[in-house]
Design brief:
eight-stranded mixed beta sheet, globular, 29% helix, 2 domains, alpha/beta, GMP Synthetase, Chain A, domain 3, seven-stranded mixed beta sheet, Rossmann fold
Length: 647
């Protein structure tokens, strides 16, 4: 039986945007929606009407057109709003209710002072950069790239590019040159925005030489604009940001684009091969983000929205869309633990954050460090805390309510770069149960398939989507035949999107996530989600973090667990037994690892996700493709040719 951790009050529910939308949709459709479950069912059964009414409710600027969806029954080939015309930047640059002199962006670097930018300043600088880009010959469909930090200048560059109908694509400055070249080399940007460096853990990291390498390797780049985060000497690297801002501030033209025209190019992690260039639609991104932010995350005009992210993670794209709801962005650049683990909570309290977004690993780290913002901070404006990036353990649910704030919605959300949005979301109308995501997103026909491809409830299986939805990718850039796109999502089940998550749909319509499907373990043919092991192992005082893989052994698969221990601990026989006993007690005998091995570090992607597949390849003496896609590729050496795995 799931433990109830939070229940919204009647006042909280009736003040939410989702409640208002539910009443409004009932009037528009002449139906009765008493519960979220009823609203969700209608949004699936009459999907075109739902998405059409959502356009109206969120007051998207543009021409919707008469047709809502073509080829609705063919998920892969369906086309949404084929006659629509709109501009993404125009919808984000809406005049705020409180006037143009209100703050649009808050920005902070580690222990530096908070900077602000008003909506009027945001519009003025976007106009100047757009005018400059137009003078460089940037037009609709051109690619504009960012090798950039999470700063106001990056938001401005994206808005300026998309106002012209150009396509924005970005990576963060901690990416190595090879990773950047591998991504931008496929998408061939005409203009590059780049920072001179970044700050992390109190250190200045200069990337000017990396920028030069990227410039030399990409002949498509005609101009480079340098954003001076470190204020280093960038003479000869490109045009200074300050020089671009000297361009006259002319009114934005907002070039109309089709609903399905490209807006963003995002990249898969690239740990199993060349990164896929996932190309997302203008209208699909906007409509989906408005739904997720206004209805599921309860973002309202005047709110202040924070997400700890880099520009190489889809959560940056999600975050900046909050401008379309007339909310302010709260940006942060640097380590979340410098100068202390309180830095983000100091920031949240100072600016009055209403939605705080972060990763499950960050919350776990706070808990292990015994950091208790609830006792030291007055977070009275905070209504929603979002977690994503990896599975949020039940114990982290406990920590959030005990250590951060008792009365707020904890939204464990899940989706990905593939849809630049979510299948599983939070909900201001529903209770929060320990270890569960609250609901499936409106308009998203999410099911869980067992091994026979049948929908199940209360059993683990594959997360799938059985109907088309607007934020499906337009295509993969460079995939002229569509074969890569098809194989990525539709090869397993005919006319069904397979997302690659191993999950369970609960009897009260919550979702439990057990990890990625391709990282599940199969000892004796029984599928085990790695998150189930991590949950209990990482509660142990001695263990800092862990990673589990399946090793091919004796015509079967055996579970191998690698652990990083806290300083002063060593992996002796007693601790191995303690780890195994803990797993056996809380899971099943099949979860118990055949081998437990201490390592110095765990390899991760740039966005902080652990890479079970790369470790598995090294253990089996297979080549890890695209090793430079990892944040710390040197960590893989700890797993190579281990004597312990030879017996």
């Amino acid at each position: 039986m799931s433990t109830l951790l939070w229940q919204p009050s009647a006042k909280q529910m009736q003040s939410s945007t989702l409640w208002h939308f539910m009443q409004w949709a009932a009037m528009q459709t002449q139906q009765v929606f008493n519960t979220y479950a009823e609203l969700y069912q209608w949004s699936i059964e009459d999907s075109p009407r739902f998405w059409s009414l959502l356009w109206d409710y969120t007051q998207i600027r543009g021409v919707k057109g008469e047709q809502i969806v073509v080829n609705q029954d063919n998920i892969e080939k369906a086309v949404w709003f084929p006659d629509a015309q709109l501009n993404f930047a125009e919808n984000l640059l809406r005049e705020p209710d409180a006037g143009g002199d209100t703050v649009a962006i808050y920005f902070k670097v580690e222990d530096q002072a908070i900077r602000t930018l008003t909506f009027d300043q945001l519009l003025d600088q976007t106009q100047r950069v757009a005018t400059w880009l137009k003078a460089q010959g940037v037009t609709a469909g051109d690619r504009v790239a960012g090798y950039v930090a999470n700063t106001p200048e990056t938001v401005i560059a994206m808005l300026a590019a998309t106002s012209l109908g150009a396509i924005w694509t970005s990576t963060s400055p901690d990416f190595g040159e090879e990773s950047v070249i591998e991504r931008f080399g496929q998408t061939e940007p005409k203009v590059l925005f780049a920072v001179d460096g970044y700050f992390y853990n109190g250190k200045r990291v200069d990337i000017r030489s990396k920028v030069q390498t990227v410039q030399a390797a990409l002949p498509s780049i005609e101009q480079t604009v340098i954003v001076p985060l470190l204020e280093a000497d960038t003479t000869g690297l490109g045009v200074a940001w300050a020089e671009v801002l000297q361009t006259p501030s002319l009114p934005l033209e907002f070039v109309p684009r089709g609903f399905n025209d490209p807006l963003y190019i995002l990249y898969s992690s690239g740990t199993t091969g060349k990164p896929k260039c996932i190309t997302h639609k203008v209208g699909g991104v906007l409509l989906q983000h408005l739904k997720e932010q206004q209805l599921h995350s309860d973002i309202r005009a005047g709110d202040r929205v924070f997400y700890f992210t880099t520009c190489g993670w889809m959560m940056w794209n999600w975050l900046v869309s909050a401008l379309a709801s007339k909310a302010a962005l709260v940006l942060y650049e640097g380590s979340p633990f410098y100068p202390s683990g309180e830095v983000l909570w100091d920031y949240a309290e100072a600016v009055g954050v209403t939605l705080f977004g972060t990763s499950a690993k960050y919350l776990e780290a706070l808990n292990k460090a015994n950091i208790q913002p609830k006792t030291t901070r007055r977070l009275h404006t905070l209504r929603t805390l979002c977690s994503t990036g990896s599975v949020l353990a039940p114990e982290s649910f406990d920590y959030v309510y005990a250590g951060i704030k008792r009365d707020m919605c904890l939204a464990s959300i899940s989706g990905g770069t593939d849809i630049v949005s979510c299948f599983v979301l939070g909900n201001p109308l529903l209770p929060v149960y320990r270890g569960e995501s609250q609901c499936r997103g409106l308009g998203m026909a999410v099911e869980v398939f067992n091994e026979e491809g049948k929908p199940v409830v209360g059993q683990k299986g594959e997360l799938v989507c059985t109907q088309t939805f607007p934020s499906q990718p337009a295509f993969f850039w460079g995939d002229s035949t569509g074969e890569k796109y098809h194989n990525a999502y539709f090869a397993q089940y005919p006319n069904v999107w397979q997302h690659g998550d191993y999950v369970e749909l609960t009897e009260h319509d919550g979702v439990i996530i057990y990890g990625r499907s391709d990282a599940t373990l199969n000892p004796g043919g029984v599928r085990i989600g790695t998150a189930e092991i991590y949950r209990y192992v990482e509660q142990l005082d001695e263990v800092l973090e862990s990673i589990a893989i399946g090793q091919d052994w004796d015509n079967d698969v055996r579970v191998v667990l690698f652990v990083v221990l806290k300083p002063a601990y060593v992996l002796d026989a007693a601790l191995i037994q303690k780890i195994r006993s803990t797993i056996r007690q809380h899971c099943t005998p099949r979860h118990v690892p055949a081998k437990v091995i201490q390592v110095a570090a765990i390899p991760r992607t740039k966005s902080g996700k652990i890479v079970e597949l790369a470790v598995r390849e090294v253990v089996h003496n297979r080549v890890v493709k695209n090793i430079h896609a990892l944040a710390n590729p040197e960590a893989l050496e700890y797993y190579r040719n281990l004597i312990e795995l030879q017996t």
